[in-house]
Amino acid sequence: MMHARKKELKTERFQLCMEKSVIDAIDNWGFENRIRSRAEATRMLVRLGLSERKETKKAEARA
Asked: Could you tell me the CA-to-CA distances from 50 to 10, 14, 20, 44, 63 in Å, in that order?
């Protein structure tokens, strides 16, 4: 699913408040993708979203 990337330690922490429906969606996505924890599912979804945004910006620049 994700491209191989340089191993980076998870040393930074922050608190995040969001709606229960969003948390439920994260949990469901994690379960469907066999992710063991909510934290890991959240990290993966953030990375996917950032990667998608980067690709969208590249495509917009080419247009």
From this structure: 17, 18, 22, 10, 20
